[in-house]
Amino acid sequence: MELKEAQFTKDFINEIRATYAVDLKDTSPMEQYMALGHLIKRYNGESWTDTSRSYRKNDVKQVYYFSIEFLPGRLLQSNMLNLGITDVVKKGLKNLGLNFDKIVQAEPDPGLGNGGLGRLAACYMDSMASIGMAGNGNGIRYRYGLFKQVFMNGYQVELPDDWLRNGNAWEVRRENRACLVRFGGHVWLQEQPDGSLKPVYDHTDDVLAVPYDTGIIGYHNVVTNTLRLWSAELPPNEEQTYYSQEQRDNIDDITKVLYPDDSNAEGRSLRLRQEYFFSSAGVQSIVRHYAANHTSFKHFPQKVAIHINDTHPTLVIPELMRILLDEYDCPWNLAWQITTSTMSYTNHTIMQEALEKWPIDMFRGLLPRIYQIVEEIDRRYRADKAPVFGQNIVDRTAPLGDGQVRMAYLAVIGSHSVNGVAPLHTELLKKDVLADLYRIYPEKFNNKTNGIADRRWLEIANQPLTKLIDSKIGKKWHANPKLLQELSAYENDDKFLKQLAEVKKINKQRLADYVQAEMGITIRTDAIFDVQIKRLHAYKRQVLHMLEIIREYLEIKRNPDQAVTPRVHIFGAKAAPSYHYAKSVIKVINALADLVNNDPDIGDKLKVVFIPNYGVSLGELIIPSADISEQISTASKEASGTSNMKLMTNGALSLATMDGANIDIIRAAGKKNEYIFGLTANDVYGYYRRNDYCARKVYESNPELQRVVNALITNLIPGISTEGHEIYDSLLKYNDEYFVLADYADYVKQQEQIAQDFQDTTTWQKKSLANIAASGTFSADYSVARYAEDIWQVPYNRILK
Ligand code: 4GP
Question: Per the similarity annotation, which family is this (predicted)?
Answer without folding.
Answer: Belongs to the glycogen phosphorylase family.
